Amino acid sequence: MVGGGEGSFIGDVHRKAIAMDGLAKLVAGCFSIYYDDTVRTAKKLCVSDDRVYKDFKEMASKESAREDGIDFVSICTPNATHFPIAKEFLEADINVVCEKPLTVDESEAKELAALAKEKNLLFAVTYAYSGYAMVKHAREMVRRGDIGEVRVVMGEYAQDWLATRLEDTGNMQASWRTDPSQTGKSNCVGDIGSHIENTVSYITGLKLKSICASLDSFVPGRTLDDNAEILVRFDNGARGVFWASQVAVGHDNGLKIRIFGSKGSIEWEQENPNYLKVAYVGGPVQILSRGGGYMLPSAANVSRIPAGHPEGYYEAFANIYRNFATTLIKKKNGEDLSGADFPTVEDGLAGVRFIGKAVESSQKGSVWVDL
Predict the structure, then answer these.
(1) Whether pTM exceeds 0.85
(2) Residues 6 or more apart from 221 whose CB is under 8 A from it?
(3) For residues 77 and 177, what is the distance between their CA atoms, to the nearest angstrom?
(4) Given 35, 133, 206, 352, which residue has the most CB atoms within 10 angstroms?
């Protein structure tokens, strides 16, 4: 693992997710830009002294030279560092799992996608919400035509954690996320708007054709966006609206996706993730429960415990790692990899493109731009 040292929220999430199914274990790391932090973190995680590294370059070089070297690296660092770290490990012939957004620039994302393809390496991007069982159920429903042709998509992600200048209080995550040198050209769209784009894409299979965005920075003194409204058009003619906000007082982590088709609709909320609201023309609204006997195969495959026992963020994250690790094991055994179900480097590239085009549209006066 690179990153995920003391005080890291997402690094701890990755480690718990990796451990949940026992398919992989953490054996090496460079957990911080500060070596003392790396050493302390390594001791807590029982990582052998000879596999604790001062920087990611040393780690990639030495692990690739070992007979028992790592099979993949997990990158849990701020956005602007993803590209050089991922590139270093790909060039060392090591598979990659990387936090989102993939990079801060589309050209960098394209380079990583091309390098992974050239090296024939697996590359996952941890869009966590694609790991939820009911998101997978919704995806299968749309793909088999249950709600007909998709006409309208509404996606929102409402948070309130940056409604004040939290970055001035010593909060590490708020500090780097609002800093352009670490987070890139966008804060709100890059952090949570990208989750809307990916979750919608994963469920519907549709590609964005064009967008019209307005990115706002409401908190005084803040350089990057903390709110965004985005009109979207899809390749099949469908329309939609994405709203992402980190200043929506009273909302914790309100990701909600609503998909309206010619025959019915689907609605899923991340804060109530074990249920899916479904409606059909002329019929009653139905609430589907995770773990029910009617779950479709990809959803049933990742449903871990009986209905009524809540599954959440850790399980969804673990599902991404389980599917990635299972695919990697198949690859090592020379087996067929078709049907692999985890967010790929191409999904990461699409997300970076979406972020960049949203910023471009807003800077040009909220004009329509093509993707």
Answers:
(1) yes
(2) 165
(3) 11
(4) 352
What rounded mean pLDDT belongs to the chain?
97
| Sequence letter at residue 244 | A
Structure-token pair, residue 312: 């959440």
- Reading the block at residue 143, the tokens are 């793909």
Region 259-272 average pLDDT:
98
HEC assignment per residue over the chain: CEECCCCCHHHHHHHHHHHHCCCCCCCCEECCCCHHHHHHHHHHCCCCHHHECCCHHHHHHHHHHCCCCCCEEEEECCHHHHHHHHHHHHHCCCEEEECCCCCCCHHHHHHHHHHHHHHCCCEEECCHHHHCHHHHHHHHHHHCCCCCCEEEEEEEEECCCCCCCHHHCCCHHHHHHCCHHHHCCCCHHHHHHHHHHHHHHHHHCCCEEEEEEEEECCCCCCCCCCEEEEEEEECCCCEEEEEEECCCCCCCCEEEEEEEECCEEEEEECCCCCEEEEEECCCCCEEEECCCCCCCHHHHHHCCCCCCCCCCHHHHHHHHHHHHHHHHHHHHCCCCCCCCCCCEHHHHHHHHHHHHHHHHHHHCCCCEEEC
Q: Which domains does the chain have, with CATH numbers?
A: 2-121 (3.40.50.720), 132-306+344-363 (3.30.360.10)
Within 10 angstroms of residue 207's Cβ, the number of other Cβ atoms is 11
Q: Which pLDDT value is given to residue 285? A: 98
> What pLDDT is recorded for position 162?
98
Residue with tokens 């991340």: 270
